Automatic annotation (TrEMBL), chain A:
InterPro entries: START-like_dom_sf (IPR023393)
Domain of life: Bacteria
Organism placement in taxonomy: Bacteria, Bacillati, Actinomycetota, Actinomycetes, Propionibacteriales
Protein's recorded name: Polyketide cyclase
TrEMBL record, chain B:
PANTHER family per record: MONOACYLGLYCEROL_DIACYLGLYCEROL O-ACYLTRANSFERASE, TRANSMEMBRANE PROTEIN 68
Phospholipid/glycerol acyltransferase domain: residues covered: 54-175
A GO CC term assigned to this protein in UniProt: membrane
Organism: Nocardioides silvaticus
SUPFAM superfamilies, per the entry: Glycerol-3-phosphate (1)-acyltransferase
GO molecular function: acyltransferase activity
Protein name: Glycerol acyltransferase
Entry keyword Transferase: yes
């Protein structure tokens, strides 16, 4: 069983600027995972990368090792270890600048409890996506920095 | 503009002189215990507050009961102590003019909202707490519970810049989960003339205990939602924007900074209400 959370946000900056930042795993992953822990593992010759990424959900850390495939204006990853999930980030043109859309699909085991966990996971993933998108928007529109919302170090 | 004047039934002065430290000291333990048990309250970030008068700017939540406002007042009085720099909250006149509750609020340092009052309080060395979104934000729809809704109000920016104090943003989640609000009630308030005669800018349909369905908000028994609150680093408008700020730009920056922090705080929620 899988469940998907999708959120999007409009960033008032040129499309190419937004696409460059939002699809760079070195910038985006720390933002999305900024509420938990993340670590760059390795880069492959084909341009793909591996990261360890966990969302901090109370006492539970959800995530694992992910295989990241950047292809501007898209970025996608899927898990190779830990919680089974996949993520898609897409940047599209918008009259005010660019729209960034994130979709996270989580696959959980079990029947009744599994379905209940999926409902919870969809809400949790949705709130994390919103938080990540807001970070990206603020970083692009205001540059982060001295206000306590600056980007964490990437690699 | 004609305004309905409510009869003055309060005995406590409306100002910093109305704040009663001894009363706060007596009430703090039981109120803090109640908030800890009922709302599982968490407040972080007071270490960011400089030792000078500041303007706390918060997102307003919880309909007419605004539990996170009370939580912030309690937290400030415990962190900085009752004898420390006083916290003065600017409140809607419907709160400060209310019998009993108005006196209680004044003793805790609430005064009737107004720019001249804020200037007075800052000049007297107090920290001032404002909620620019006012009733519009406190009565925003539940679906927008994790959104900053200041309704374009920029008076707080001009106040901070003019008085030379730093803005300390405060964001909180959970308050808007203590009542269910179905819609944005700004249009209804205009049609009914509430905005003109009572300065009530929003009359949405709400669901609360014990009122049930109600147009607008009356003080209610809040649901026991978990409340998280985060005090952010100060923003110095003069340093950032100079003597002649672009107010729209400053507004966008402050609200954006608060939105980022609010969304991050909201991401810590596992299940709404439960926390």
């Amino acid at each position: 069983m899988t469940t998907t959370a999708t959120r999007s946000i409009v960033v008032r900056r040129p499309f190419d600027v937004v696409a460059k930042v939002a699809t760079d795993p070195g910038v985006l992953l720390p933002l999305v995972a900024g509420l938990g822990r993340f670590e760059f593992i390795a880069a492959d010759d084909d341009g793909t990368e591996e990261w360890d990424m966990f969302l901090d959900i109370g006492a539970v850390h959800v995530g694992g090792r992910v295989h990241v495939e950047p292809a501007t204006p898209r970025l996608s990853w899927h898990s190779v270890r830990g919680t089974r999930h996949a993520m898609e980030v897409e940047v599209t043109e918008h009259p005010d600048g660019a729209r960034v859309t994130m979709s996270m699909t989580v696959r959980l085991g079990g029947l009744v409890l599994g379905r209940m966990a999926e409902v919870l996971a969809r809400g949790i993933a949705g709130r994390h996506l919103v938080a990540g998108l807001e970070q990206v928007r603020h970083h692009l529109e205001f540059g982060g920095g001295d206000d306590g919302t600056s980007l964490p170090a990437a690699r | 503009m004609a305004l309905l004047r409510l009869p003055s039934l309060h005995r406590v002065p409306d100002g910093i002189e109305g704040r009663d430290p001894e009363f706060i000291r007596r009430a703090l333990p039981r109120l803090w215990l109640a908030f800890e048990l009922y709302f599982r309250a968490e407040v972080d970030g007071f270490e960011h507050v400089p030792d000078e008068p500041v303007l706390f700017v918060g997102n307003h939540s919880g309909g007419a009961s605004v539990p996170d406002t009370w939580l912030f007042v309690l937290a400030h009085n415990t962190y900085f102590t009752v004898e420390g720099r006083p916290l003065i909250g600017l409140a809607h006149r419907i709160i400060t003019d209310m019998p009993l509750l108005g006196d209680f609020a004044r003793k805790f340092g609430m005064v009737k909202a107004g720019p001249h009052r804020a200037r007075q309080m800052l000049a007297q060395g107090a920290n001032v707490l404002v909620y620019p979104g006012g009733d519009v934000e406190a009565l925003r729809p539940t679906r927008d519970r994790n959104r900053i809704v200041f309704d374009g109000r920029k008076g707080f920016l001009k106040l901070a810049h003019e008085t030379g104090v730093k803005i300390v943003p405060v964001v909180a989640t959970g308050g808007q989960e203590t009542v269910y609000i179905f819609n944005d009630g700004r249009r209804t308030a205009q049609v009914l003339g509430f905005d003109k005669y009572l300065r009530i800018k929003s009359v949405p349909i709400t669901l609360s205990f014990p009122w049930g369905f109600l147009p607008g908000g009356l003080p209610h028994l809040p649901l026991p939602a978990k409340i998280r609150m985060q005090v952010l680093p100060p923003i110095d408008l003069r340093e950032k924007y100079g003597e002649d700020p672009d107010w729209d730009e400053a507004y966008e920056f402050v609200t954006s900074t608060m939105q980022v922090a609010l969304s991050s705080l909201a991401a810590r929620t596992t299940l709404p209400v439960l926390g």
